[in-house]
Amino acid sequence: MKFIIGIGGVTNGGKTTLTNKLLRTLPNCCVVHQDDFFKKPDQIEVGEDGFRQWDVISALDMEAMVSTVKGWQENPVKFARSHGVSLSPEAEEYGSDQKGIHILLVEGFLIYNYKPLIDVYDSCFYISLPYEECKTRRSSTRTYTVPDPPGLFDGHVWPMYLKHRKQMESQCDRIEYLDGMIPKDDIYSIVFESIQNTLLNNL
Q1: What pLDDT score does 61 carry?
Q2: What parts of the chain have a pLDDT lower than 50?
Q3: What pLDDT shows up at residue 144?
Q4: What are phi and psi of 146, to 5 degrees?
């Protein structure tokens, strides 16, 4: 059985923290990070707001991301081995027969804004944060390869978040929303329990 789980959310909401915890506790689990598919800086357009448009879908090579997800769908055992993921003895024994449970986490900030990806998810989660908390975390807790220029959050990041969230809500009605203000362990517990229930219901 193969399950694909979306872990979406606002910038600095805790997506990666949650994803890493799930990776350690779910069986035969791999991950695809949307951030790995950003185009090179010189390919990122400057918008009317005067900022490089990092927070839009065109800043990402989404075709390559979909291709990676399809690679997992076609052979999760091979995908796991090529990504250094330890498989359970059952999965190793069955090998390419694909028996047992295999899980793929798809993590990113625009994973529900690209139609070819929306239909692949068995479970969809999205971490939200209010404006002030998101801005504080962005400015104080993260160091980016390309540092944020002054005014980027208010001039580009937050307006794009609001725009894409509205689009996401109209395109995907299966999302379970999570409050990013609650402790990270509580977010993990909610998601882990939900995934366990989904797996049990499909056994």
Answers
A1: 94
A2: 95-98
A3: 65
A4: -105, 105
Joined together, the tokens standing for residue 180 give: 């990013």
Residue of 189, 176, 200, 203 whose CA lies nearest to 5: 176
CA 89 to chain centre: 27
Q: Confirm whether 49 is a catalytic residue.
A: no
Structure tokens at 70: 């399809």
Q: Give the model's pLDDT for residue 192.
A: 97
pLDDT in tens, 18-65: 999 999 999 899 999 999 999 998 898 888 888 888 888 989 999 999
Q: Which of 35, 154, 179, 186 is catalytic?
A: 35
- Single-letter residue type at 135: K
Q: Is 136 helix (H, G, I), strand (E, B) or coil?
A: helix
CB neighbour list of residue 87: distance below 8 Å, 6 or more residues apart: 28, 77, 80, 81
Q: Which residues contact 145 (CB under 8 A, 6 or more apart)?
A: none
Q: Do 72 and 30 meet the contact criterion of CB atoms below 8 Å apart?
A: yes
Question: Dihedral of CA 104/57/147/141: which sign?
Answer: negative
The answer to whether residues 123 and 5 touch, using CB atoms and an 8 Å cutoff, is: yes
Write out the two tokens for 140.
């104080």
From start to end of the chain, where are the E strands? 2-9, 29-33, 102-108, 123-128, 175-179
